[in-house]
Amino acid sequence: MTVLKVGLAGLGTVGLGTWNVCKNNAEEIVRKAGKKVKIIAVAEAEKNKFTCLEKNEAIYFSDAMKLTDVSEIDVIVELIGGDTFARAFVIEALKKGKHVVTANKALLAKYGNEIFKTAEENNVTVGFEAAVAGGIPILKVLREGLTANRIDWIAGIINGTTNYILSEMEARGITFEKALKEAQDFGFAEADPTLDIEGYDSAHKLALLASMAFGTKLNLDKVLVDGITNLDLREVIYAKKLGYRVKSLGIARRRNSNLELRVHSTLIPENCLMANVNGAMNAVQVKGNAVGNTLYYGQGAGAEPTASAVVADLVDIARGDRKKMITSIPALSFQSDQVKDLNVLEHLSIESGFYLRIRVLDQAGVLADITRCLSNENISVDAFFQKNHLKDDIYTDVVLLTHKCMGKDIFDAIESIKSIKSVIEDPIVLRVESLE
User: pLDDT digits over 115-159, tens only?
Assistant: First the structure.
């Protein structure tokens, strides 16, 4: 029986998961791939991680770049992380005619245009199912399952850390700071959670999803990114009162010949499926013009869920035509000569509903003044209420939901609202999406 020979770079959480999935599911993999998938070499800076591997017959290297010189290796799995050494490592592997499988979304979001071009020039392929949403095979869905569709939009909970924090804030009424501390204690959040809570991790994933959905070049630098660090518990409570839940979403939408690419806290109706994705789980909703709305749910991180996606890419490569080094399915769904550089809209040009919380003096005429400012920009109010925190409080929160309007109009209205004497703080603004 023929063997697909693999070089594994990195024995962290996902690397160890990949080793275990290949070992534990070896028989099932042979039945599906038609050949063995065997890790014959491992690169890891900490040798003790390598020596602890059970029944280990692989060659060891402390320097991952050495894997590119092993002629027998067909595929290199890059699980080192980062985007400096990893970039040089992946490019070198591709130039030496080796397929690459990676879970490194930051690397691909930043340098994917270069990496995929190098792969095509050298007649090899790049597998990266594990880079987005862990164990959810969303990239295969876009590349294969929905290939007959013109994708209208994608919306996803694609970061488990932020979803866990928001779920706990809503369920238990705790602050962002407390929810983050618990997420770190439980291992859902890193000691430095910046990439997650500031939205950058989701932005990396969204850039890849958008490229595959719409046939556009990777546009990481054009993604509108707003994290959850400044989200007040009041927004979560008030949203629930209005029949909504707050989720940090990555949204990519086609607008004629333009695109929306944005990551931010969003109000979505509590009765939609996405609103009921809780804890550290991920979910991605895709709207195709033929299939309609579809939803994909599962674990977005963890050793074996992510390793499941890594090994699935290895199986795809093993199934390839033995006479060809590249699979017939384009890595980014579209034929390379059909990938276009579409215009990405800035936030003032994006239409949606909006949530406003305005802290004001509790006195007559304030609501009329606020609605007049909105009306002057042709913005209509969908729902509103006022909330006093204390019995004798002289301040109140005015909370409004608007119908759909342009970002420019809402922010022009807000500038007018800020000039009202009884408004004591800058209004809080969040977008509202129906996901219909």
Answer: 999 999 999 999 999 999 988 999 999 999 999 999 999 999 999
What's 350-432's CATH class?
A: alpha beta
How far is the first Cα of the chain from the last one, in angstroms, to the nearest whole number?
50
**pLDDT tens sequence across 11-31:** 999 999 999 999 999 999 999
Q: Domain coordinates of the chain in residue numbers?
A: 3-135+303-338, 138-299, 350-432
Q: What is the pLDDT of residues 31-66, one digit of tens each?
A: 999 999 999 999 999 999 888 887 788 999 999 999
Whether 418 is a known active-site residue: answer no
Q: What is the pLDDT of residue 326?
A: 47
Q: What topology is assigned to 138-299 in CATH?
A: Dihydrodipicolinate Reductase; domain 2 (3.30.360)
Entry pTM: 0.93
The class level of CATH for 3-135+303-338 reads alpha beta
Mean model confidence pLDDT for the chain: 93
Write down the pLDDT at residue 322: 47
Catalytic pick from 5, 105, 205, 247? 205
Reduced 3-state DSSP string for the chain? CCEEEEEEECCCHHHHHHHHHHHHCHHHHHHHHCCEEEEEEEECCCHHHHHCCCCCCCEEECCHHHHHHCCCCCEEEECCCCCCHHHHHHHHHHHCCCEEEECCHHHHHHHHHHHHHHHHHCCCCEECHHHCCCCCCHHHHHHHHCCCCCEEEEEEECCHHHHHHHHHHHHHCCCHHHHHHHHHHCCCCCCCCHHHHCCHHHHHHHHHHHHHHHCECCCHHHCEECCCCCCCHHHHHHHHHCCEEEEEEEEEEEECCEEEEEEEEEEEECCCHHHHCCCCEEEEEEEECCCEEEEEEEECCCHHHHHHHHHHHHHHHHHCCCCCCCCCCCCCCCCHHHCECCEECCHHHCEEEEEEEEEEECCCCHHHHHHHHHHCCCCCEEEEEEECCCCCCCEEEEEEEECCEEHHHHHHHHHHHHCCCCECCCCEEEEECCCC
For 329-341, the pLDDT digits (tens) are 888 888 888 988 8
